[in-house]
Amino acid sequence: MDNETKRLAQLAVAWCGPVFVIGYLIFWAILGHNIPPPNFVGMTAEQLVSEYYGKYQSQISIGMIGCCVIGLLYLPWSCLLASMLRDKDGSLGVFSFMELTGGTLTAWLLAFCPAMWAACAIYATSVDPNLIKFMHSLVWYIYDCTFMITTIQCVGLGVYTVLNKEQKLFPAWAGWCSIAVGIIFVPLVLIPFVSEGPFTVAGSWNFFIVFGTWLFMFFSPYSYFMLKALMKPTQSGQLAAAH
Questions:
Q1: Per the domain annotation, does 239 fall within a domain?
Q2: Is residue 242 part of a domain?
Q3: Quick check: is 33 in a domain?
Q4: Which is nearest to 132 in space by CA: 120, 143, 144, 142?
Q5: pLDDT in tens, 145-203
Q6: Long-range contacts of 198-204 (CB under 8 A, 24+ apart)
Q7: Count of domains for the chain
Q8: Strand partners, 86
Q9: Domain range spanning residue 202?
Q10: pLDDT above 70 coverage of the chain, percent
């Protein structure tokens, strides 16, 4: 495969990231009625079914199944990003593998958890509401309380960016932002224990700040610099040759 073909292939993979974000906003946030999600800790099982799953059953089912597909586009984006984190000799170091592994497991969560929520929606009116709430809660705990998966990705990426002063693809400020995003996730551990305030599943911190900073302080800057590098013929050729 020649360098230009490799560049175009990598550019296509880079666009998987933005397509994933747009698709997830449509399927998970809008069709899934998660702006914000229901505060299940403060709801009874009957309320969760009648006010959420029963009320939007078809939309949630379609949205969550859509997430099972679109969520995995985060995987090739993360793989491409890891391939760009090369040491001076062209090898991948521990921080590259932290980004790759964290991104891979995050992609799995982004698809697996919606599959479980889809099941909740499909069976919402035919099984015991307590079973629906148990499954819904369990999946949210997996989705949010395993935040360390994505924190490892963000911190590995950020440390590489900050410490590797020879690389010119990503500025140091993007690395610091990535590290900060990983730390901002920490209060997600409070979700199972609070029913009101900023640290609930729908709270100002654990929903709006966490997802907002991930999008604007981590994903958007790195997507921009990835696309910028791959759209420069000279630099793109060098990247393709290195890979």
A1: no
A2: no
A3: yes
A4: 120
A5: 999 999 999 999 999 999 999 999 999 999 999 999 999 999 999 999 999 999 999 99
A6: 200/39, 200/41, 200/42, 201/36, 201/37, 201/38, 201/39, 201/40, 201/41, 201/140, 201/144, 202/36, 202/37, 202/38, 202/39
A7: 1
A8: 92
A9: 3-233
A10: 95
